[in-house]
Amino acid sequence: MNSAVERFGLAGRVAIITGSSSGLGRGFARALSDAGAAVVLAARRQEQLADLAAEITVAGREVLIVTTDVSNKQACTALVAEAMDTFGRVDVLVNNAGIGTAVPALRETEEQFRAVIDVNLMGTYWMAQACARVMSPGSAIVNIASVLGLIKSYAPQAAYSASKAAVIGLTRDLSQQWSGRRGIRVNAIAPGYFESEMTASIPNELLTQFVAQTSTLGRLGLQHELDAAVLFLASNASSYITGITLPVDGGMSGH
Questions:
Q1: What distance in Å separates the CA atoms of residue 146 and residue 64, rounded to the nearest whole number?
Q2: CA separation, residue 104 to residues 159, 193, 197, 198, 201 (Å)
Q3: CA angle 38–94–172, rounded 5-degree value
């Protein structure tokens, strides 16, 4: 039996990380690569993907980049097919691609609302579906939801909150369908507020004050604190865990 530390390793595994061109996704790709996985970097911005791929290659790890819009089901299928052609397997999916808006509900247009749902919910579903078709028993899907799928937001974010609550429900259902029958564990992480590209658009003073008032630890999260949770759920360290949503929010959801 592997040691406790070895169970966090991903040597010989292949991991797809969507939304890995920026923000938290870049950190997830680095963390899974550091743990030994060959990584497939997927996002819409090819130049940023190429920069990250070069960094990972220098570190001696295998990497593939595939420009992908996860809101397009065919693009998701093509991404998984390319991963299979290159590496012959897919063991881990980190469903990280997502967008956020802050539009008052009475002014939000159908196009604005659907755009968020198409990426955050539908993209998560299409990627999970495509990966589950080729994954072997022992594989893992990690959906990146949000604390706003669990608690109220301080901003008008109906589309974002609805999409992330839906991802949590989707996680439970896919776990029920796939974990026992196919041996594919499906879990979610609900991040709080982290220093990222998405939170950079929020006035720093406003965000800092909100987090201080609504979380137990009273500060923004750091990338490595979320990386550890993703690695846990992606690896054999969590082999008896499926269908759960793990808040990584500084105590915000329990405040």
A1: 27
A2: 10, 21, 22, 18, 17
A3: 140
> Which strand (E) or helix (H) includes residue 182?
helix 158-182
**Tokens at residue 208, please?**
């800092």
Active-site residue, 240 included: no
Taking every pair of Cα atoms in the chain, the longest distance, rounded to a whole number of angstroms, is 57
d(CA 148, CA 222): 18
Q: pTM of the prediction?
A: 0.94
Whether the pLDDT of residue 199 is over 80: the answer is: no
Query: Which of 200 and 77 is assigned the larger pLDDT?
Result: 77
- What pLDDT digit, counting tens, does each position of 158-191 carry? 999 999 999 999 999 999 999 999 999 999 999 9
CA torsion 77-11-64-194 (nearest 10°) is 80
Using a 10 angstrom Cβ sphere, with 0-12 exposed, 13-18 middle and 19 or more buried, the burial of residue 143 is buried
Q: What amino acid is encoded at 236 in this protein?
A: N
Catalytic residue among 154, 160, 193, 240: 160
